[in-house]
Amino acid sequence: MDTLTDRYIAAVTTSVPERARQDVATELRGSIEDAVRSRAAAGEPADAAELAVVTELGDPDVLAADYADRPSYLIGPRFYQPWRRLVIMLLTVVLPIAVLAVALGLSLAAVNETAASGGHPDLGARIGPVIGQTVGIGVTIAVHLVFWSTFVFAAVERSGGAVAPPRWTPDQLPVTGIPHKESLGELTAGLVWLAVLSDFLIVDQVIGLVWLDGTGYAVVDPVLWPWWIGALLAILLAQAIVLLVRWRRGTSPALAVVLTVLTLLGAAWTITALVTGHLLNPALWAYITRNGDVGPEVGPILSTVAVFLVIAITILDILHNLRGTRRSRPTAPGL
């Protein structure tokens, strides 16, 4: 019968590369026998001494990893930081883009399916199912992104010295203690956009920007005038003030938070108007679809696309604000 030592050596050498098994078995057996003889010479029974020695050696798989010089961790310290940066980038950049694309595709498919069945393609009624499917697919995408990134880095970790981690250089250090300031060009572009949008809203409601058969039509639903559109104009004015302050004083976390809140309020206003069917004047849309060249399903499709465009632009604006704040982090005390 195999002794306890034989069984332990067999368990260790099974996980060791074949070319090294004999050497490991010889070395390990000698170590165990020497330790057992030492304990037996001190008066300990042979069986008890053998059991104590094997117990002290511990898990044979762990010992085999030491003999094979194989890491017992998934991602070690050499590659942990590059792996972490990659996973964060994938989850904060790639995943949102993929989720938006999936949600847009599901929404358009729902619109076409409803229109094909002869039903009225109501955007609000489809939000629940689309969100549920998007969340499920988004979780699946996130799992795949993390799994395959980890798999590749684990394989690289076990390649020994075949692959070296990315080299760090001082150029990667962030600038500290110097507030990031918007350029005059960036400020001008932002203010011009806000001014054009404000003028559009006011002129559209007062005069009407589209004239058809001698009749002026507002592009935005007049039911939103004056209170809802006035609220949006106030948001745009507040954004212009924040842009001016940021240009004069530089970016700060407080300004970034205020600008992010204003951006989210503007996005919420636009999406609410789109979903409820008030962003585009119903009278103007009825005139456009009256001749039959444009089907009734086109409106919900355009609204669906517009919702996701607003979400994408909002995310880009918020990321831009946060990036500027990160570039202007304060200097650490004592530096």
Task: Report on this structure.
With 335 residues, the protein is mainly α. The protein folds into three domains: 4-67, no CATH class; 77-166, no CATH class; 184-326, no CATH class. It has helices spanning 4-14, 21-41, 46-57, 60-67, 77-116, 123-157, 184-206, 227-249, 253-275, 282-289, 298-326, and strands at residues 210-212, 215-217. A two-stranded antiparallel ribbon has the order 1-2. Strand 1 (210-212) and strand 2 form a beta hairpin.
Question: Which key terms come to mind for this protein?
Answer:
single chain, 335 residues, mainly alpha, 3 domains, two-stranded antiparallel ribbon, 11 helices, disordered C terminus
